[in-house]
Amino acid sequence: MVDLFDGMKPYEKKDEKKENIPIDTRTISISAEPSYFELSRTDSGIFIVNIKNNATIDDEFEIKMSVNYTSSYETEGAEWSIFEVKEHAKERINPYIYIKKIKIDAQQTNTLKIEIEPPPGMRYGERVDIVMYALSIKDPAISDSIKLTAKAKQAFLAIKCMRGHEMEVADSLYNNSTKTPGTLFSIFVPPLIRGYFFVEGMSSESVKSMIKGISKARGIVSGSASINEITPFLIPQISVAGIVKGDIVELVSGPFKGEKGVVKSVDMVKEELTVELLGSLVPIPVTIKGDSVRIFDKEKDKRGE
Question: What 8-state DSSP symbol labels residue 291?
């Protein structure tokens, strides 16, 4: 008898393969670079805001913002200027009513540029906090937000005045500044500059109001100076710096004015030179202050000849 099932394998149930169907996460993320600025009155800052649709489908989003101005003083913080920078221009926006709708493809990013400018008459410690929100129009529960902050900082301003009256104008300016705290922090009158001095203040507008009525003040130089530009004036200059033994110098003051001499020694502590006058029958060593000569010929130049 022949077994009809001979040689046949028993039936084995195979696992059905499930298709890997992508799950729609439908999320959004918002980031900014940078998210914090410290700005003087003449500065401005641009926040680069990136809004990414992390979902597997396209979506439309609504962009909103809220703003808060704060101050270290009892008064409310001044209002900063906020702009949206576009391809060929920038448009001032009102953050209280700002609404922007944008479509973002799946897994793609949309970039916004938000520029911030400090207000006139700002004071130390004033700041603005902007919170930007991005939410899906189809499902507002899908949202994200980011905080952008800008804080006021002081700047170095150059004041122009009558030559020889720098200290007088600086004293008057200081007296006026006591009436408006938080706007002027220091005054520096470099002895080597005539007709100008520097102040460390919050804004040119506030300093301008302080110099009104000071008869010998002549206004403010436009723009601001950096700390690197005024640092050379903060460091006392040694009058004999750069002068070495063997240099030929010309005397520019004193009884030997116009005479030339060879430097025999340099005293860096007392800032004095011992000079042997040229042209005299008998060598006469003279000790003089470093600020009473100018270099006529360098010793190293003579060695190279």
Answer: G
